[in-house]
From TrEMBL:
Keywords in alphabetical order: Isomerase, Magnesium, Metal-binding
CDD domains assigned to the protein according to its UniProt record, in alphabetical order: MR_like (cd03316)
Taxonomic source organism: Streptococcus criceti HS-6
Top EC class for this record: isomerase
Enzyme Commission (EC) number: 5.1.2.2
Gene3D superfamilies associated with the record: Enolase-like C-terminal domain, Enolase-like, N-terminal domain
Protein name: Mandelate racemase
Domain of life: Bacteria
Gene that this sequence comes from: clcB
């Protein structure tokens, strides 16, 4: 059915954290502790009465830039057929091509792209995962929020036990300190406390060079880790490849890449074992479908970064091994009316129509920073 977009609303939303968190970038003096997440959300309405919602996000600086560009994109969608998702993605990108085809340029498209896929699934009378081709009803998940470096290892262990009891399947701990041996001690203590069977991941947040990562990785290999994440800077294809070949622990990266094209060299050189490209950061579902295909061709583990509410139905469409990252920050403030369901170490894929997410109008007035309607 041919339809027409008649209304687009763009919102800037601030999600405060219960307490500031610090990874290795903070410990190494490159950032300040993270206190909030900024979200740009889009609501699209069509002439036929369909509505869709999508969002992108930013940690630290950049959220208002995403919002500003999304507001420039929004009027370009009015009068367009919402079925033409790929064409509209290209239309928006070309409208801002003078600032490039990565980063904010594509992240400003993300809310609209996701909202259009939400509409397409609703029109078909299907959950998003069924529309795209679902392989899984449950996806393994791991928690990250309790593994930051501002907490003592005793606090990390206590939080890990709590989330495991709640139904999470594994835990991730931050590493990447100036003295990697301090990280090895924390990992050893966590493994000892949780036993041999609990999946544990580690994340250095790009803070080591290849030489240091190799030295640390030799120690980490003794602890049966699921993966070693971002051991070196995110664009170092050769460095990740070298580490993947030298270490027993699988190498994960991709979350900081800001377009599908930035990930292509990693696929071509098989420079990682775990693919972590993030749908909101690379332009939404249209671009993430390319990631699904390339990851499958390379027989990679798929573990997209953050945004569990979105990545759950997307990873359900992956035929290989996959993980979803459990970050409860949005649930803590009640951003969406819906919550993920944890069952025996996995997340249950939602069966609600479309994306299956609704902005919670009861809390939105306290979280919303700004909004603009186009019609």
């Amino acid at each position: 059915m041919i339809d027409k977009i008649i209304k687009v609303e763009v919102k800037l939303i601030r999600v405060p954290l219960k307490k500031p968190v610090s990874d290795a970038k903070v410990i190494q003096g490159k950032q300040t502790p993270l206190k909030e997440v900024m979200i740009t959300a889009a609501l699209i309405e069509t002439e036929a009465g369909y509505t869709g919602m999508g969002y992108t996000y930013c940690k630290r600086n950049g959220g208002p830039a995403q919002y500003a560009l999304s507001k420039e994109y929004a009027p370009l969608l009015l009068g367009q057929d919402p079925n033409d998702i790929s064409r509209l993605w290209n239309k928006l990108l070309w409208s801002s091509i003078s600032i490039g085809n990565t980063g904010v340029a594509v992240q400003g498209i993300t809310p609209f792209d996701i909202a259009l896929w939400d509409i397409k699934a609703k029109r078909a009378g299907l959950p998003l995962s069924k529309l795209l081709g679902q392989h899984k009803e449950y996806v393994p998940c791991y928690n990250t929020t309790g593994g930051f470096l501002q907490d003592t290892i005793e606090e990390v262990i206590a939080h890990a036990r709590t989330v495991l009891e709640q139904g999470v399947g594994g835990v991730k701990i931050k590493v990447g300190q100036p003295d990697y041996k301090e990280d090895v001690k924390r990992v050893a203590a966590l493994r000892k406390a949780l036993g041999d069977d609990v999946p544990i991941m580690i994340d250095a947040n790009q803070q080591w060079d290849v030489s240091t990562a190799l030295k640390a990785g030799k120690y980490f290999d003794d602890y049966n880790l699921v993966w070693f994440e971002e051991p070196v800077t995110c664009h170092d294809v050769e460095g990740h490849l070298r580490l993947s070949q030298a270490l027993g622990t699988p190498i994960a990266t991709g979350e900081m890449l800001t377009s599908y094209e930035e990930g292509v060299p990693f696929f071509e050189k098989r420079a990682f074992d775990v693919c972590q490209l993030d749908a909101p950061r690379i332009g939404g579902i249209t671009q993430f479908q390319k990631v699904l295909q390339r990851a499958e061709e390379n027989h990679l583990v798929l573990a997209p970064h953050y945004s569990m509410e979105l990545h759950l139905p997307l990873t359900a469409c992956y035929s290989g091994d996959a993980w979803v990252e459990h970050f409860e920050w949005f649930e803590t403030v009640g951003l969406f009316e819906e919550k993920v369901e944890l069952v025996d170490g996995k997340m249950k894929v939602p069966t609600r129509l479309g994306l299956g997410l609704t902005l919670n109008q009861d809390v939105l007035p306290d979280l919303q920073v700004d909004a603009q309607l186009f019609q």
